[in-house]
Every structure is written in structure tokens, then in C-alpha cells.
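Q: A reviewer asked whether we had any structural model of the full assembly, not just the individual parts. We don't, so I'm hoping you can provide one. Inputs are below.
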Amino acid sequence: MNGVLAIMSRELRLAVRQSSDSMMVIAFFVIAVVLFPFGVGPEPQMLARIGPGVIWVAALLAAMLSMERMFQADYEDGSLELLALTPVPLELTVLAKVLSHWLTTGLPLIIVSPLLAIMMNIPPEGWGILILSLALGTPTLSLIGAVGAGLILGARRGGVLLSLLVLPLFIPILIFGVGSVDMVLNGLETKAHMLLLGGIFLGSLALTPWATAAAVREAVA
Amino acid sequence: MADFLGDNLDCIRGERRVLSGLNFQISDGEILVLTGKNGTGKSTLLRLMSGLLRPQGGELSWDGESIAEDPSAHNDRMTYVGHAEAVKPAMSVLENVEFWRSVRTKPDKTAMDALAAVGIAHLANIPARYLSAGQKRRVALTRALTSGAKLWLLDEPTTALDVDASTAFGATIQAHRQAGGMAVISTHTDLGLSDVRHLNLSPS
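A: Here is a predicted structure for the entire assembly that you could use as a starting point for your response.
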């Protein structure tokens, strides 16, 4: 357990010292959303209609940006093979890295999302569910992204390959995330959407650490 | 008394047979020095011993039990220092050493003692990005000193080290074996070790 905490604190310390990486993800998220009013025109009804979808897609792409780096730096400097050889099980090491990835990219995305909701003219009753759906969905993005990040180690043009591998897997999260906000805005019940998002999260939590650890083992062999 | 044994090992890397039918045995207080030309499989053998690679044929065992049976027990008794330094430039020297010490279950030397042992205690608080190649190597060596592991696997541990530091590290290995530890070292330099076993991997 101490080992897992040590890995967590190392990851967070590195993320804080290289905080420009996280800032870049947030900046991308904000700019991507800001582009839409320019592209589709500034009519408030139109923005409110597409707002939840735009914010979710932008969050997904922003999270994508940072995923490639999840194991890459450790792979290049030799830390990853040593992490695979520590007494801490690799599955837990991977989970610690995913959690710190979420804390440094997913969580900030959630924090700035209300600001973007105001900008996209989403009615206030939708803000809560937007934050909640992002809070349930973004950890799943980090978990699934980690499998891809492990698989692309050693490949050229890994970032593009990673997008091809994991973006299709994000579709269900996108559907239920955006769907939940639309339901609330139309005065409907969102329990089913939340349960599905939660279910996908728990399923990923149970399965992806094994898959990621296997991919990492293959990469360092 | 522990026995680390390799029996009839075969290893194929990139469709080339690197090792075939190789045997080795090492017990408490023994040092095995791997020799042989470049590309004869010294690093491959060390990676097999660490468990990073699995042999295509044959078996590695510790006290009669295959190391693949319980990888985490093997990781617990072994430390591996490879070619890559695994030093994070954004962390201080001390933080780097402390981290690798903190993931061990039974760590040995404290981080400061280990840094003193490799002669860079005065650099403890500077960011690792300012270290020279030899200084980074010394930081990598502290991983063995702090690990508390019985088996040290060292792949060319003294690359980029000056003569004094190499000799000092040789003495550290000697102290480790006197405490009942074992070490497998691939090296081209003389570390001043006496009474070691040699395993020559060059095809005869």
C-alpha cells in the first residue's frame, strides 16, 4: 500500500512541476468550445441545443491529448521497466497512474465546464447534471485511454494510433453523458443514463487495469 | 541458504537465437560475472533473470520454485540496474532516490546514506536535470543500495563512472556479498572483485 501511495505522490509531484501539460489540456478544452459560436453562429437557442454535445466532445478530445504521455516518458527513460519490477503489483501501479492522470486532467476539465456551460447558454438546471455526468464519465476515459497508451508504447506516431484505438470506445460514454444533460433540460428522468455511466465506469475499473498491465509488460519485455 | 538457478535456457529475440541451452547457478555470497563480446546475450540473460523477459525454453528457479510462479516475490528479492538511468529531471536527486526506496518492502540504506556511498551526497537537493552522465549513473546505482534485495542484477553498472567510483562500487558489491547477498554483473571493466565466478557467453 505504501508503494502505491509513493507512486501516486510521485506522479502528482511530476504533474505539478510540469503543470504546463495540464494547462494545455484545459486551454484546448476552452478554445475548442469557444470555436463553436464562431462556426455555427451566435443564436442563443442554437447554442443551448448543441451545448452539452459540444462540451462533451471537446472534453473527450482534450482528455485524448494527454493520454499519450501517460506512460511514454516513463517508457523512454527506463522507469517503466523498473516500475514493472517493483514489489508493487503492476495492476495497482497502473491504477495509481490512471488516478493521477484523472486528477490532473479530468478534474480540471470538470471544474471549468460550468463556465463553458454559461457561454454555450445552457440553462442553469442543466449545469449540475453536466458536472455529474462528466464526473462519472471522465474517469472512464482515463481508464480506457490507459489501455491504449500502454498498447502504443514503442510505436511510431503513437498519438494518432491511440486516437484510432480508443475514440470509438468512447462513443457509449459520449451518448449517455450528453443524453443525461438533454434529458434534464427536457424535464425528464436521468436515472437510467447515470446508472449506465456508472456501470461503464465500474466495468472499466474492474477490467482495464489488467489489460493495461498486460500491455505494459509486453512493451518492456 | 538460497539458490538461484537457470536450467537449459533458450531465448530468441527478433528471430535470432541469443541464448541456447544456457545453465547457471548462484548461491548466497557468490558473484557471477558475465563476460562475452557485444551482442552475445549478457543483457538478455540479465533481463531473463529479472523476469522482464520469459525464456522460450528452460526454466529459472529460486530454491526450486520457478520465478514465473510468483513474480512479486521475485521482484521483492531482486533489484535490477539496467542501461537506462530512470532519473526524473524534474525531481531533485534525493526525491529520485527516495522514490525508488519507498516502493521496496524491506528497504536497506537510507537515501542519504546511499548517496553518500556513491559520493554525491552534496548534490542531494539539486534538480536531477543538472547531473552529468556519470552522476546520473551513480543515482541509478543507489537503487541497488537502498533496495534491501538479496540478488543484485547489474547490467554494465560502471558505464560513464570514473575509475575511483568504479573501484568504490566494486567494494560496495564486495560488502553486499559478505552480508550474504548475491550479484550477477555484466561488465567490461575490472571492478577489483576477487573470487568471482565467470560465465562466458561468447560462442566457443
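A: Points you may want to mention in the reply: Chain A has ten helices and no strands. Residues 30 and 120 of chain A are 11 Å apart (CA to CA).
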